[in-house]
Amino acid sequence: MADTSALYGLLGALGGAGVTGIAAIYGPLRLHRHQAGMKAAEEQVRQREKEIARLLRMRTMGRVWIDALERIVQDLQAHRPLEVDRFDEITSQAVLEAYKAGHDLVHDGIWLESISSEPRGIPALAASSVGADGSTDVAASQILGRLRAATEALRADVLRRSMSEEIPVRDETLEALELARAARVQMNATILEQIELINEDRVLRP
Fold first, then answer.
1. What is the DSSP string of 190-204?
2. Hey, which residues does 112 pair with through a beta bridge?
3. CA distances from 78 to 82, 159, 197 (A)
4. φ, ψ (nearest 5 deg) of residue 80
5. Hey, CA dihedral for 51, 54, 57, 59, is it positive or negative?
6. Contact between residue 75 and residue 91 where contact means Cβ atoms under 8 Å apart
7. d(CA 129, CA 92)
8. How many CB atoms lie within 10 A of CB 130?
C-alpha cells in the first residue's frame, strides 16, 4: 500500500513537472504571439494613416496650384502688372509640391496623369479597378496634366501682356483652367472614395 502511495506521489510529481514545463514553454510563446499581433495591428494603423495623409496632401496641393492660377487670372483681368519672373516664382513651388504629392499616390494604386491626352474628357477609374501592382491604362484623373496645360497657357498670356496691358486673357486659357477645375473635382471624388475604403477597413480590422 505504501508502495502504491509512493508510486502515485511520484506520478503526481512528474505530472506537475510536465505541466510546469509546458507552461514554461507555451506561456512565453503565447505572449510573443500576442505582442507580434499587437505590433502588426499598430503597423496597419500607421500604414492607413500614411495613406490618408498622402491622399489629403494631393488634395491640398491641387487646391494650392489652382488657387494660384485663379489669382493670376484675376490680376490680369484687373490690368494689374505681372512680370513673367514673378509668375514663375508664384507657380513653381505649387507645381513642384503637386507633382511630388501625385507621384506619392502610386503607393496607393492611384495614377494621376501628368500629361494631358485625348479624349478631352477626364476618364474615371474606381479604386478597385487598379491592378495589384498599381498599373493601369486609364488615369484616375488628369489633374496634373490639366494644371500644367493651364499654367503654360497663362504664362503665355503674361508674356503677351508684357507688350500691352490691353491684351485680354485668352478664351483658351480660361478653358484650360476650367478643364483643370473639372479634373480636380474628379480627383477629389477619387480621393474621398479611397479614404472611405480605408476607414471601412479600419472598422473591419481595428
1. HHHHHHHHHHHHHHH
2. 141
3. 11, 16, 44
4. -85, 135
5. negative
6. no
7. 33
8. 17
Residues 6+ apart with CB under 8 A from 122: 141, 142, 146, 179, 182, 183, 186
Do 162 and 83 touch, CB atoms closer than 8 A? yes
For residue 168, is the peptide bond before it cis, meaning its omega torsion is within 30 degrees of 0?
no
Q: What is the DSSP string of 128-147?
A: GGS-TTS--SS-SB-HHHHH
CA 156 to chain centre: 32
Q: Which of 77, 61, 95, 92 is nearest to 158 (CA)?
A: 77
Percent of the chain with pLDDT over 70: 60
Weakest-pLDDT range from 58-67, 133-142, 164-173:
133-142
Can you name the residues that pair with 141 across neighbouring β-strands? 112
Residue 154 contacts residue 73 (beta carbons within 8 Å): yes
CA distance 164 to 162: 6
Please give the mean pLDDT across all residues of the chain.
74
Q: How confident is the model at residue 72 (pLDDT cuts 50, 70, 90)?
A: very high
pLDDT for res 171: 94
Q: What is the pLDDT of residues 77-109, one digit of tens each?
A: 888 888 999 999 999 999 999 988 888 877 766
Place of cell 494603423: 45
d(C-alpha 61, C-alpha 101), whole Å: 7
| Residues 113-145: tens digit of each pLDDT | 655 444 344 443 433 344 344 444 456 678 888
